[in-house]
Design brief:
Number of helices: 5
Distance between the termini: 67 Å
Strand order of the largest sheet: 1-3-2
Largest sheet: 3 strands, antiparallel
Number of strands: 3
Structural class: mainly alpha
Shape: elongated
Radius of gyration: 21 Å
Length: 118
């Protein structure tokens, strides 16, 4: 069972491993949308958006419901919104760490330039 869970997680994160797919999920977190709406919002070609939606559907991350001549896409699990928020927080934490390192580096450089050399 543990191996199955690890495989599920690996496949799940692979399905998320594309910037356009992440952007699509962020948009769907705001509400259901059809392909044309997603296309317009991401500024990408329809074929690229459709291709990414196909991958997300295949992994049961989004679902599509036919309404007339349009397919309306929605997040399969609302916890995706939380996952994206956690990913943003992790990014922010890394950014804070990087800024701290850069500030320390800058302080060290300033100290070196202030110390007279013999």
């Amino acid at each position: 069972m543990n191996l199955e869970m690890q495989q599920f997680k690996a496949d799940f994160f692979k399905a998320l491993a594309h910037p356009l797919r992440i952007r699509i999920l962020e948009l769907l977190a705001e509400g259901d949308k059809n392909v044309n709406e997603i296309q317009t919002l991401v500024g990408s070609e329809g074929s690229a958006v459709s291709q990414q939606l196909t991958i997300l559907r295949a992994k049961n991350i989004v679902t599509g419901t036919k309404e007339g001549n349009k397919v309306i896409y929605t997040l399969k699990d609302p916890m995706i919104i939380e996952l994206l928020a956690v990913a943003r927080q992790i990014f922010n934490n890394h950014l804070v760490d990087t800024i701290t390192i850069l500030d320390k580096f800058k302080e060290d450089e300033e100290e070196e330039t202030m110390v007279p050399k013999n």
